[in-house]
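Worked example

This section walks through a single chain of length 198. The input is the sequence exactly as stored; nothing has been trimmed or padded.
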Amino acid sequence: MNSSPTRSHGFTLIEVLAALVIVALGMLGVIEAVTQAARNGTYLRDKTLAHWIGMNIVTERRLQGSPPDLTETSGDLDYAGQRWHWTLRVTQTQVESMRRMDVSVRAAAGKDGTSIAAATGFFGEAIGPAGGPTLAWAGSGAPGSGKDNDGDTGEDANNNGNGNGNGDNTNDNAGDGGDDTPQANPVPAEPAPSDDEE
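Given that input, the structure is written out below as tokens.
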């Protein structure tokens, strides 16, 4: 009695190749995602370090006794195992006693004119105690000076020449010294009944 041998079924060569192609494509996607995540991590690290450098430059200039010169300076430094290039530009603000400092930072190997991070700070000569009175800023119309553009204190803007001009209420037209507290309207008292009416 002859029995035919049973054939064992397996994957053909084409099926194996198709599976390998699918796995390879999937692995390429995974590798690309990991590479992008590593790039993002490196960029964020460099951006954070560059911002710290910019804030350090601003803080160093603030701690100096004299205001920074109105010019553009640059320099290189080593920080966190890397070489960095910074550029500081100082400009005058509308307030005479205050200057603006803009710092841009990039890797020393980066292209000129590019920056990874930027920081901005201000240097002011007017310093007052905490909780103290408002500082007298230099310049007409400066914040905190209490002066408007025509040089006066601006207290009589809408006072129409009435009152004492102390600025208590700019819409006071009653001429009562600026006190615009609502007054109760007097209610006429009822006349007492006379003896004749009884």
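What to look for: The mean pLDDT is 76.
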